[in-house]
From TrEMBL:
A single GO BP: regulation of DNA-templated transcription
UniProt catalytic activity: ATP + protein L-histidine = ADP + protein N-phospho-L-histidine
EC annotation from Swiss-Prot or TrEMBL: 2.7.13.3
Record protein name field: histidine kinase
Organism of origin: Marinomonas algarum
Length: 267
């Protein structure tokens, strides 16, 4: 419903522009558009700016009197093809197109915008309506978060330790094992993940296997973390003394979904 009303409003404004051949918008429409938190720009058939609301003027650092600029001049050069492709698609299919694009603001850093464009036809002339939501802060936060995640992942993968997530069964069937598995016991992760011919449980010393099982089950029943000391066989057939710290992952009803933890060698 809101989208339909919004499209009708933009269509009406565009028709006024066509009739008047001027970037001026009647006061009632201008007041509505100037109160929006999103930028609104209307482009003519050559993709020049015919009208821009107050939010766009603040976002682009251009005055109200600035018009007849090609909208593409405000975009990062690497996004020009993306913009041109989106314009072609909305022209061919008559539907709105959404894309994430970078804006070049004079004297400022690059800003990211969630852009929605749609072609409107009136009086045998076509116009493009563009709405832009400033998502710069969100993108920056996502980039920082992704960078931290990559750094942490690289650090974890370089550690001579096994980070794991697996099922609570006697085979200790693994769903995830970190790359440190190869450094610690000589097996690549894919050799132990969901492999019936070789399970992680097969590598635990037979004398330790039942004690490990009982200690984990006791901890899971009491919803507490566990710490285990046992012998683990490497690919050469030698046993290493290891310590394992882990915990259960539970559903909202208390059902055990999986276990996860870390295994490192001890002296």
């Amino acid at each position: 419903m809101l989208t339909s009303l919004w499209n009708k409003l933009l269509r009406q404004i565009s028709k006024l522009l066509v009739v008047n051949q001027t970037p001026n918008v009647h006061a009632p429409y201008r007041q509505v558009l100037d109160q929006l938190s999103d930028a609104v720009v209307i482009l003519d058939h050559s993709l020049c700016v015919m009208y821009a609301n107050r939010r766009w003027q603040r976002l682009s650092s251009h005055s109200k009197n600035t018009s007849s600029d090609y909208f593409i001049h405000y975009l990062h050069p690497d996004d020009h093809q993306k913009w041109q492709r989106a314009v072609r698609l909305t022209h061919q299919h008559g539907e709105y197109i959404e894309l994430l694009i970078r804006l070049l603001i004079p004297g400022m850093d690059i800003k990211w915008g969630e852009v929605r464009i749609q072609e409107i036809h009136s009086h045998n002339t076509s116009f493009i309506t563009v709405t832009i939501r400033d998502v710069t802060q969100r993108i920056q936060e996502e980039n920082i978060s992704n960078a931290k995640h990559r750094n942490l992942t690289c650090l974890v993968e370089r550690m001579p330790a096994i980070l794991y997530r697996g099922r609570n069964n006697h085979s200790w069937s693994m769903e995830y094992i970190s790359e440190g598995c190869e450094d610690l016991i000589g097996y690549q992760p894919n050799q132990l993940i969901n492999q019936p011919q070789l399970s992680f449980g097969d590598l635990i010393h037979p004398e330790d296997a039942e004690i490990v099982w009982q200690n984990v089950q006791s901890s899971l029943r009491e919803y507490r973390r566990f710490e285990l000391h046992y012998r683990l066989k490497n690919r050469k057939g030698h046993y290493l003394n290891v310590i394992e710290k882990g915990q259960g992952i539970y559903s909202t009803t208390g059902e055990i979904l999986s276990i996860e933890g870390v295994i490192v060698q001890t002296l």
